[in-house]
Amino acid sequence: MAEKNKQKRETKKAPQKSLKEKRKEKLEKKSK
Predict the structure, then answer these.
(1) How far apart are CA 27 and CA 19, in angstroms?
(2) Is the pTM above the cut of 0.70?
(3) What H or E segment, with its residue span, contains residue 6?
(4) Exposure string (b/e) for 5-31, b if CB count within 10 Å is 16 or more?
(5) What are the two backbone dihedrals, phi and then psi, of residue 28, each rounded to the nearest 5 degrees?
(6) Integer Cα distance of 11 and 26 in angstroms
(7) Which whole number is the average pLDDT over 6-21?
(8) For residue 3, with 0-12 CB atoms within 10 Å meaning exposed, 13-18 middle and 19 or more buried, which class applies?
(9) How far is CA 1 from CA 5, 9, 13, in A?
């Protein structure tokens, strides 16, 4: 059970990370 919860938490973090990365890319494109 503990491992399953760990995986859930990791999958929840993943989309947030990609969002931050997307925002980063947008900022980089603007600065260029």
Answers:
(1) 12
(2) no
(3) helix 2-31
(4) eeeeeeeeeeeeeeeeeeeeeeeeeee
(5) -65, -40
(6) 23
(7) 73
(8) exposed
(9) 6, 13, 19
